Amino acid sequence: MYSLLKKFLFTLDAEKAHHLTTKTLKILGNLGLLSIVRRLMVGKVHNNPATLFGVQFKNKLGLAAGFDKNAEYLVEMDTLGFGFVEIGTVTPKPQEGNPKPRLFRLPLDTALINRMGFNNGGVDAAAKRIKTFRKNHSSSELIIGGNIGKNKVTPNADAHIDYKICFEKLYNLVDYFVVNVSSPNTPNLRELQDKDALRVIFQTLRDTEKDLMKDGKQIPLFVKISPDNSFEQIDDILSLVEEFELTGIVATNTTISRENLTTDSTIVTEMGAGGVSGKPVQNRSDEVVNYIRSKNKDISLIGVGGIQTGEDAIRKMSAGADLVQVYSCFVYEGPRMISRITKAISLN
Hints:
Blueprint: H1 2-9, H2 14-30, H3 34-42, E1 50-52, E2 55-57, E3 61-63, H4 74-80, E4 84-90, E5 103-106, E6 111-114, H5 123-136, E7 143-148, H6 159-170, E8 176-180, H7 195-209, E9 221-225, H8 231-243, E10 248-251, H9 265-271, E11 275-278, H10 282-295, E12 300-304, H11 310-319, E13 323-326, H12 328-333, H13 336-347
Parallel strand pairs: 3-4, 3-13, 4-7, 7-8, 8-9, 9-10, 10-12, 12-13
Antiparallel strand pairs: 1-2, 5-6, 6-11
């Protein structure tokens, strides 16, 4: 069924197709028809509950940040069967993001290029929606992660203030946090992966947390890193993860590399700047996950990048990931992949 729908969606601009898909899901949910959609387009979701970093997951498949930037589709993603959803990236103030078009498909590579630029409605709007979801769906087992960033106009020297604002406003609403310093689509953001810059952010969040904690319990805190980092840069990040006792790492974000693409280079050049996600980033993402795991056996790892099949998910987990996330896969494979991937994980 999705193959027919995909043919239509792929005739549209990629961002327009995304909005059409999500708004259709919202309408179907409001009409009480999502359970039918799940039966027809997803099939059986193979839940295999697991407790990781103190959080109970109904299954190990999550929706990566970027798909539901504003926490608008929690009910829909929960109904479809995801074990967790990472909302965002959210910033303190609403922002439009980069000029359109800013999302492109590379079908020959099963990939996307995006330069969205943290377009979102601001942390207050996201917090309100999460609070409403928690209130109206108290029996839901969906785990919600909060991916936080800085506004484009905020200089890097003040970035820690933006992360603090988002941290404060989502604290006790999300189940875990992800500090996003690795998107290639906000000018100079990746400079925040520098050891000294990261130390300021982590120190600020740990200091802020002292006044927010309930019963002395910390909310799990991750950092999302770039696949373009060298192993030496990853070592620096790992030292900070250990210094500030972060829960773990989300590996990886999109890549700025254009190597090994099947799509004609002229077409790719015309699309312009942006991060590549999907199949082309799989090998490097797996390498990064494997490297991190070889250096630290104890931290938690959320693996994302290039997962299209159940076998890809198992490969990522064999490299060292505790949980896996998808995004591009949803575009190319449709919701049926939720059944396929959760089945593979449950049988592994």
